[in-house]
Specification:
With about 240 residues, the protein is α/β, with parallel strands linked by helices. It contains ten helices and seven strands. The chain has a seven-stranded mixed beta sheet with strand order 3-2-1-4-5-7-6, with helices on both faces. The chain starts with a strand and ends with a helix.
Length: about 240
């Protein structure tokens, strides 16, 4: 196993806290209540996830369609306000509280141990380029050899094409599917998606919905289920 690929949102960074920051930012611009915005954002996010499962999201306009779904939760909200609120959070907010499970130190240690690290991430109503900026601001970027995002490759997890794009980006290292372990929090998108293309997989199951133990080895050592990212340091020595 040479390569570890990471999902970003809800794996190494906290989505709900980001949505909270975005809601406060949008409230300052619009005069709406931040709590009301937050609930509408969560509703829109759930709709987007459901539509992704049903393959109703146009892969050629993921961010645009997701933004339209978000706008549908409001009356007469200007799309420019959403862009402005997102830009403010990404560029100017303190983002340290997004970090989950001491993930920056975990990732730094895995890189120190010689693993090639990449990201493979889906997007909603902000582009992968914003996630790149966030990772840069938080000090993660230096550890990743490549970053792959759904809007940039026109393909979302769990579809095989996004995982194959990651392999293509690693061609110079002579990487085969069996050399890659993908780490993520979503059972369908990350765990099953990775296994389906021949990767190994780690499911980050903080709620212990799939394993009450907090650490399980499954599928003849092809996969793991953990409840905290720090347990990666036990697996990948």
């Amino acid at each position: 196993m040479k390569v570890l690929s990471f999902d970003i949102w809800n794996t190494i960074l906290n989505t709900r806290i980001f949505y909270r920051k975005f809601s406060i930012s949008l409230a300052r611009i619009t005069g709406l209540k931040s709590e009301d915005i937050f609930e509408r954002v969560l509703t829109a996010y759930a709709k987007i996830k459901s539509m992704r499962v049903k393959e109703l999201i146009d892969e050629n306009r993921i961010v645009e369609q997701s933004t339209e779904i978000l706008l549908g939760e409001f009356e007469n909200l200007n799309q420019e306000y959403i862009k402005k609120a997102l830009a403010f959070v990404v560029a100017r907010e303190n983002l340290e509280d997004l970090i989950l499970d001491n993930s920056k130190k975990v990732i730094a240690e895995l890189r120190k141990r010689g693993y090639i690290l990449v990201t493979i991430g889906n997007v909603v109503f902000w582009p992968g380029s914003y996630t790149r900026i966030i990772l840069e601001r938080l000090g993660y970027s230096e550890y990743f050899a490549a970053q792959i995002y759904a809007d940039e490759v026109k393909c979302s997890k769990p579809r095989p094409c996004i995982f194959r794009k990651a392999l293509k980006a690693l061609r110079e290292f002579g990487i085969e599917p069996e050399d890659v372990v993908h780490i993520g929090d979503n059972f369908r998108e990350d765990f099953l998606g990775a296994l389906g293309v021949g990767f190994k997989a780690v499911l980050v199951d903080r709620s212990k919905a799939y394993s009450s133990k907090g650490f399980s080895i499954v599928l003849d050592n092809r996969a793991y289920i953990i409840d905290n990212l720090e347990k990666l340091l036990t697996i990948f020595k």
